[in-house]
Amino acid sequence: MGALARLRAGLGRVLVRAARVRERGDPRLADRLLRLAFRIEPEMGDAIGALVALRRAGGDRLAALAAAHAASERYPRTSDAWFLLGEAYQGAFKMKEASEAYERALALRERADAALQIGTLFRREGRHADAAAMFARAFAAGGEPDALYENAVSLWGAGDREQALRALEMWGTHFVDGTARVAEARRQLERGTPSA
């Protein structure tokens, strides 16, 4: 990054900090400052995420979506921009578009958070086998043990109980009281009431 780009990045950070100070007292000014910071930043920084969050907090889901869409247009090769767009689509209850945006984020960079989101959306659609594959991918990408649990729940929902129990066993190895957790999780699956 050259000197001018560093200067622009620094100015963008100053504007983001100024906007955060004014978020509650003058959200319109904060919005303007964040839009300016977004235009100034030489690469994707904190401005666009803060702008989406500000608009969402103000109840304007469509304005938040518009801001996230602008980020994906300006930074089409940046995984974070697509992930932000996925979150904004999800916040606007556009689940198909959210899934597509998360998939773009995942195609650009292997990331656990995007795989978890896709898995959750797949499971809501009743695509349990696809969800299980995404949860396994999330764990492989560095996701927490909860990804293994979600994998087991999805495998169980897909009818693959043997693999579901194997996933539960792997999940249990991450805890001191793993055996007890696995036993309780299995009981919940058998009752059809897995915990989230």
Write a brief caption for the model.
With 196 residues, the protein is mainly alpha-helical. Helix content is 77%, strand content 0%.
How would you explain this protein's 3D organization?
It is built from eleven helices and no strands. The protein has 196 residues and is an all-alpha fold. The protein folds into two domains: 1-101, Tetratricopeptide repeat domain (Serine Threonine Protein Phosphatase 5, Tetratricopeptide repeat); 110-196, Alpha Horseshoe (Serine Threonine Protein Phosphatase 5, Tetratricopeptide repeat), CATH 1.25.40. The longest helix is centred in the N-terminal third of the chain and has 20 residues, at 3-22.
What's the arrangement of secondary structure elements?
Layout: H1 3-22, H2 27-40, H3 47-57, H4 61-74, H5 79-91, H6 95-108, H7 112-124, H8 128-140, H9 146-157, H10 161-172, H11 178-191
Helix pairs in contact: 1-2, 2-3, 3-4, 4-5, 5-6, 6-7, 7-8, 8-9, 9-10, 10-11
